[in-house]
Amino acid sequence: MKALSGSLLFVLAVLVAVPVAAEPAQSGAGWHHFDNPAKEQRYQNLLGNLRCLVCQDESLLDSNADLAADLRAQIFLMMKSGESNAQIKQYLTNRYGDYVLFKPPLDYRTYALWFGPFALALLGLVVLVWSIRHRSRERAAAVSDEERARIDELLRATERNDKQ
Amino acid sequence: MRIPLRFLVPLLFFGVLVGLLGWGLTRDPSLVPSPLINKPVPTFTLPELKQPGKTFSSARLARGHVALVNVWASWCVSCRAEHPMLLQIARSGIVPIYGLDYKDTRKAALNWLDEFGDPYRAVAQDKSGKVGINWGVYGVPETYVVDGKGIIRYKRVGPITPKVWKQKMRPLIVRLKNGEPLTKGETGTSG
Amino acid sequence: MIPEIGNFALIMALSLALMQAALPLLGAWRRNESWMAVARPATFGHGAFVLLAFGCLAFSFLTSNFSVAYVAENSNTALPMIYKFTAVWGGHEGSMLLWVTILSVWGVAVAIFSRSLPQVFSSRVLGVLGLIATGFLLYMLFTANPFTRSFPAPAQGRDLNPLLQDPGMVGHPPMLYLGYVGFAVAFAFAIAALLGGRLDSAWARWSRPWTAAAWVFLTCGITLGSAWSYYVLGWGGWWFWDPVENASFMPWLVGTALIHSIAVTEKRGTFKAWTALLAIAAFSLSLLGTFIVRSGLLTSVHAFAVSPTRGIYILSFLGIVVGASLILYAIRAPAIRSVGNFSLISRESFLLANNVLLVVTCAAVLLGTLYPILIEALGMGRISVGPPYFDAVFVPLMLALTLLLGFGPAASWRRAEPAALARQLRGAFIASVVAAGVVIIAVGGVRSAELALTLFLAFWVVSTSLRGVYQRLRNRGGIRRWRSVPRGFYGMHIAHIGVAVFMLGVGVVSTFAVKQTVRLAPGQSATVAGYSFRLDKMKQVSGPNYQGNEGIFTVSRNGHQLYTMDTQKRMYQPSGTPRSMAAIQAGFTRDLFLALGQQLDDGSWTVRVRYMPLVRWIWGGALIMALGGLLAFTDRRYRLAMQHERIRLPEGAPSSGVDG
Q1: Which of B139, B165, C135, C533 has its CA 20 to 30 A from that of C221?
Q2: CA nearest A93 in B: which residue?
Q3: Which pTM was predicted?
Q4: Chain B partners of A66 at a C-beta cutoff of 8 Å?
Q5: What is the mean pLDDT of the segment spanning C565-583?
Q6: What burial letters (b/e) apply to C87-111, b meaning 16+ CB within 10 Å?
Q7: Which fold has domain B32-190?
């Protein structure tokens, strides 16, 4: 019984979470296409880098959601009237926030994100080099001169034995 | 027992990670916070649903009284679920509710209001959805709390539940009406 | 009846897992032989009951027993038989049962093949595996029981998500879990060694084949997932840096570091504590991945239904298991002393550098995946971290890694003369530059620095690997003596060549793929990348549980007709979910990819056309890597070593190998 109400809850949760999945009064996808291949490529690249807010793991290029279709149309118009990629992105972030961009912005919040991995790699390699050097210095220091002489003698003795 | 720091680093890092993940569980991953919080209402002039020939402009939302702007549509299932709550709020008279009919036809919308009740003082018809985009609408229903000066103070994504009304929206509306200054925690988006 | 048996089997499995955990671990601590002797039988018993439970669930699916709530949620009478079976792991509870089943299978394998290990050690290993199994079985029985009944039983089930009604579903999750869960064995070995207070080469030698096997499975599992999403998701992408993909990729990255590190610990007795830490980390990342997928922490097309309560349980389990392991590590590892001294330029240092880069890459993926949560927690709004970030960070790190890859196998242990090393590899370097240059000229100039570097480094890896094989054979006395070279040696170079093939695939596809969305009505054609795609006709199609539209295309080039391609867009009932069945004309040098988009108001259709050069090399390269790993862990040296130990070691005696 508990499981059944659980699945009902799940169904309700899905309905609540994605209400736009229900059929709107008017459907029909618009088709927006630039004849200029470079412009068309720019359009498709731009759409590919913007997140659909309804189907949130798809881009505006791939999503079948209604809102995605509307935004595609809007962006098409904006490109047609000569707006730049930066302006279009600004338009969208003004309305939907930074979440709509797949590429995180570079600002004080994201320095750790963008530079972190390289800083970490550099740090890791530096620590690596240091610890290798440190270790061999330690080893070298651990053996005193007297011990070194004894070791050499022993090695020579072993070599003589080997040759026999 | 003395443990050199470098052997404790993984444990410390893991502790921080678990803390972050635990916090992360308390939030809704699909909620998109609105960048319009504490910003003026996006301007629009749209046909009024219930009074043909008349228009509804955003200026109406800056006339000195706190208002709710509810984005809805006749084809939206969750709006149906939310509707009794809206009717209750309208009846209580605490705050007027304005509707934004999103990507709908006039006929279907009017029928819907006829059948289920009309909590709206006025309804703007956004047939194309363009105004919705300006408001950052990405799902229906969504509700905005707008103060007397036309500044958006709060956005509710999804139906208004009794819980969110009681805990977040109603107190905020009361404080806005009293003209009290707001704290950061009171404004924002919820889903 | 059957579901009740299944439930009972789970309870029995739990009690046996508890026995498998408690008695051997206590017995190892107290040196109580009869308690330790419980380990193997308990493992076998636990495995048997888990398999029984799995069988019961499978039976419930195959007989469409909708009184079982989980079956009703994930199946349907109209579902084809094979998918009724794979639906067993189509949802949360069932996939947890799959997890537990695979864990018990690994446990049984360890129980069988560990007879040559000292009893104290093997008891601890099986005990740790038992602890993990106990945790998961408890979790399942209390919060995620697949056998929960619902009354009244629905007449019809809700159906398996159409995206999962696919052959990919047969292989991908089991293979992935075999890998993920397989790292539990390496983990158990490391914990057992830490508990015993000694990490020696013997421990590394025993761990190695298990680690390599898990790595091979994980590589295959990830590859299958990528290839599957390529054709099932309808837009020709093969990797999205989706949180769930990242969740499987992170253990892989650390797992790769681990197999390299463990090789060094075995051969040279160094990096002991580091290897143990990596073994803990690899499995921890597997658990983390399990958490991310099921907790609703992040949105993903892969994620199971959002549920923070599930998340809390798994997070607690993760916290306890990993926290305890890291505490053990912090206490025991400082006492471990590694012998061995090596200079700044040596094979050891190259391998350590490899480890650093792999671990940093994993950290970068983790950072990118969780950063949005961090930003939100700090109240700085909501950002998203998507493919542009991951590509920008991953590619440079991987290029650096492949550069080192060339030097590593050629460098001597302990101390390599930089000048001699450079001289040895000079030929390979020149060959790589020339080869890259030839390709760049052939494609009409340098497209990007990234591509040029990728080409050079891919050829660099291939030429250094070939050189390595050649040198070794020459030292042995010629190619006819190829059998005298250990299999693992070939495995290493083959795996590295797999990396190069993978890189070439990725580099070429990223730079030269052509993706266009076109609008076509029947009779119209579009030209993409020199191929002409003509939509001949659209027709209605239907199947056992779907209906849809099919587009039939003719592909030609230079006027010659080449292929016919059919692509469908289906609407599945009863869930009403759409699914696109892309048409793919696969080839060694390129794929042609077609998928239907949407129908427009005038009756024409949008069609996604993709020209994907060398895309098969991505998965081919990954499979070659897996092949290399397979060769490595089936090396006779492991089997021989195990036999050797069995003859020489009385039970309970200290292990052989360099220690200190």
Answers
A1: C135
A2: B35
A3: 0.89
A4: 103, 129
A5: 85
A6: bbbbbbbbbbbbbbbbbbbbbbbbb
A7: Glutaredoxin (3.40.30)
